[in-house]
Specification:
Oligomer: single chain
Structural class: mainly alpha
Helix content: 55-70%
Largest sheet: none
Strand content: under 5%
Distance between the termini: 75 Å
Order of helices and strands: HHHH
Length: about 110
């Protein structure tokens, strides 16, 4: 099998699972344009924006292709989990009020 026929087969398989490139591009970009009109858009980091973009991209694949393709749903959960970890890694640790801890470690 030649490289070209492997590529054609891959593209055909992807089209069956995810829909056409043109359809996905239109749907993803349309949803992303709407998302960027949100009142809090300026507060988003590049990580927030990319996670949102990738989740919308996966939603687009579901809307244009096979809605029962489990990997698309898992990808959405994966990008959400990546963003949760990113947020948690930036969280400031809570300060413990040591004035309320007794000599034996009990709280008062």
């Amino acid at each position: 099998m030649t490289t070209e026929s492997n590529l054609d087969e891959t593209l055909r398989d992807r089209g069956n699972k995810y829909g056409s490139f043109r359809g996905n591009a239109s749907t993803t970009q349309g949803m992303y344009a709407i998302a960027l009109t949100g009142e809090n858009t300026r507060a988003l980091t590049s990580c927030h924006k990319e996670a949102i973009h990738m989740i919308l991209h996966k939603i687009s694949r579901i809307m244009n292709g096979d809605p029962d393709h489990v990997d698309s749903w898992l990808d959405i959960a994966g990008y959400a989990q990546i963003m949760i970890k990113e947020i948690e890694s930036r969280a400031k640790p809570k300060r413990i009020d040591t004035s309320k801890i007794g000599p034996n470690g009990e709280t008062t």
